[in-house]
Design a protein that fits this description.
Elements: H1 3-18, E1 22-24, E2 27-30, E3 37-41, E4 60-61, H2 63-68, E5 72-75, H3 85-94, E6 98-104, H4 112-119, E7 123-124, E8 129-143, E9 149-155, E10 158-162, E11 168-172, E12 178-184, E13 193-194, H5 201-223
Antiparallel strand pairs: 1-2, 3-4, 3-9, 5-10, 6-12, 7-13, 8-9, 8-10, 8-11, 8-12
The structure holds fe (ii) ion.
Length: 224
């Protein structure tokens, strides 16, 4: 599938998700997604990967900045996902016909230790990675335009869409449990391509769509 079609759909999702912002009396607009999706720049320490790894002082990242990286997010009703019309619409609009659940804990995930290790290896996919957290929580780390790690904390009710070609990794947080709905366009392909895999068309398309564009915009802005 061509990237242009994906990008049109991505912007459509973005627009519909921005409508989740609700004005409050006398206060700045509150985006409900921030209750279930938070992001920040990571420190460089080698401590336990399940710790938050905030910088000192903390450097939070806006959901708009994530959108610039191609990472989309929304808040949904995780207690009623079976009948949720909003989820149904997202699946229809974006062609997410495949759905299953992945529970990450020693009792439910075969080869738990090995999987946990693999999830945290920096990798990319040739398709979107869509995860909807219906219980627990976890960290999805993504690279920004300057190759810095941004930690995205996904909690119950949060959905994120990582674009094809973005380098990322996953870890549980200190609560050690997540149950995530996995969505996919067509038959699922979960293959991770560990870094470096810069020659893949999906990576090249990602760079063109989200990295070079950003660099170009900055050049225009600074020249203005
Ligand atoms: Fe992945």
């Amino acid at each position: 599938m061509g990237l242009s079609r994906r990008r049109i759909k991505a912007s459509h999702l973005s627009v519909s998700l921005h409508s989740q912002r609700m004005p409050t009396m006398g206060a700045p607009e509150k985006d409900p997604r921030e209750e279930v999706v938070q992001a920040w720049y990571m420190d460089d320490s080698d401590e336990d990967q399940r710790l938050p790894h905030h910088r000192e002082p903390k450097e939070f990242v806006s959901l708009d900045k994530l959108t610039e990286l191609g990472v989309l997010s929304c808040k949904l009703d995780a207690d009623n996902y079976e009948t949720d019309e909003e989820l149904k619409k997202i699946r229809e609009d974006r062609g997410y016909c495949y759905m299953d659940f992945c529970e990450v804990c020693p009792e439910k995930l075969p080869n738990y230790e090995e999987k946990i290790k693999n999830f945290f290896e920096e990798h990319l996919h040739t398709d979107e990675e869509i995860r909807y957290c219906v219980a627990g929580s976890g960290y999805f780390d993504v690279r920004d335009h300057n190759d810095k790690w941004i930690r995205v904390w996904l909690k119950k009710g949060g959905m994120i869409v990582l674009p094809a070609g973005i380098y990322h990794r996953f870890t549980l947080d200190a609560n050690n449990y997540i149950k995530a709905m996995r969505l996919f366009v067509g038959d699922p392909v979960w293959t991770p391509f560990n870094r470096p895999h810069d020659h893949l068309p999906a990576r090249k398309e990602y760079i063109k769509a989200f990295v070079e564009k950003e660099v170009g915009d900055h050049a225009v802005n600074s020249a203005a």
